Amino acid sequence: MKARFARRMEKIVEERMTVKQIFNRYVQTSTLHGFRFIFMDTFIVRRVLWTILTLTMATIFFKELRNSINLFYEYPFTTTSTIQYEPSLTFPAISVCNLNHFLLSKIKKSKLKPLYDQGRLPFDNNLENPGFDIQGEELYSILKTSSQSIDEIFLSCEWKSRDTAKNGVPNPCKPNNFTVYSGLYGQSCYTFNPGVSGYPLLSLSETGVNMGFKLELDLKSKDSLQGIQEIGAIVIVHHQQETPVLQAGFVVSPGFQTFVEIKVRQTENLPPPYATKCGSKPLKNYQIYRQSSCFLEQLGDAIETKCKCKSSFMAGRNIPYCSLRQTVTCLMPTIYDFDRKTNNNCPVDCETIQYLSSLSYARFISNVTYLSKNAEQSSYIRKLKNSMSPKKLQKYIEENIVAVQFFYQEMKKEKVKQEPSYDFYKLIGDVGGQLGLLLGASVLTLVEFVDLFIFTLYHQLLRLSKKKS
After folding, report:
1. 1-74+422-467 has which fold?
2. Membrane spanning segments where (predicted)?
3. Which of 160, 232, 406, 466 is the most buried (most CB within 10 A)?
4. DSSP letter (8 states) at residue 347
5. Residues 241-293: pLDDT tens digits?
């Protein structure tokens, strides 16, 4: 075997070829269309025509190659929307805040009365020193006790579903079914179905306006702070993992029953380098990343940096609460100046669940004269009927009573998904198609060029070794 190998090597050395010989052999066997006609021994006109044609096709190919590469690095994507019907849907969290943050009767009895007398409550963007101060812990306590408690604002609520209702009888809920959180201005707000420990997550498998959650509130508009132009409540329908602070909601007005049809949208976004650049980042004060929580943490960081104190909505910070002077001259201006567009260090969530709301309205108890004892209204309103004339009761309802009904019209979920529309495999497919169409080449043609280079180098080394010997 060794002798055979030695004879084979001697034959290869004897057959060593020049570069021209190797190239001529390659031209005759190349799979690159038109290439052999350029170098074959034929009429010069024919060779020129084939050269022009091949170069033209090569130019078009490289132009299309550049366009394909540019398109790939634009990272385009398509968004698809599909409707998926479900046997049941998780019910969202419902958060409610009174537009009148604090009760006038309580403010007048507190140390904040001088600030109210200055016309600076609710807190405005007046940066002047109030002329007196209240320590942070005491101010926090005053704001908390001056807000309407859930017992004061609550009239009635009903949760009606297949699991909790029998024979169409609604399941009443109570104030202790709500959790409390602090709004931006220190006021108390309340959340139904928060999904936290001790509050089982509710779901619905029935549709229609008669199934779901109904809430009635008494806003006590006569006890509003002067300067409050609107009477009503802000309602925020959100996922349990979303913080309602800084969330957009809608306003419900007294005297009307608001019907809120809820629709579920699940969105999947693409991470970088795609335009949405979804992602997450560790948050100091929240266990689960959400963009809304990130914005709130950035606002808290700005307040902590500028004011060296915290507000009641800022979770998990081991610093003192802002005093009245710090609140007026630093905290409130920082809140007003905070812009989420410029604070763009919070990536979009890669997966989100949104609850979209469609609102319709009807007069709430348009004529109290016909309010019967058997009417499906709260005992509170029936009690008011016994203590007021029909005219006064009608006016009280129009100015104070809010009724909201939340329901699903259909058991469906909209799924919105972003998908790459031009990925690496499509790029390879386009390049391969253009290469084959314009030049009749393939990946193996490129391998032929590599083989040509290696073969030429090998024979040149043989020639050099022969000369030395």
Report:
1. Helix Hairpins (1.10.287)
2. 44-62, 435-458
3. 406
4. P
5. 998 988 889 999 998 999 999 999 999 999 999 999 999 999 988 889 999 89
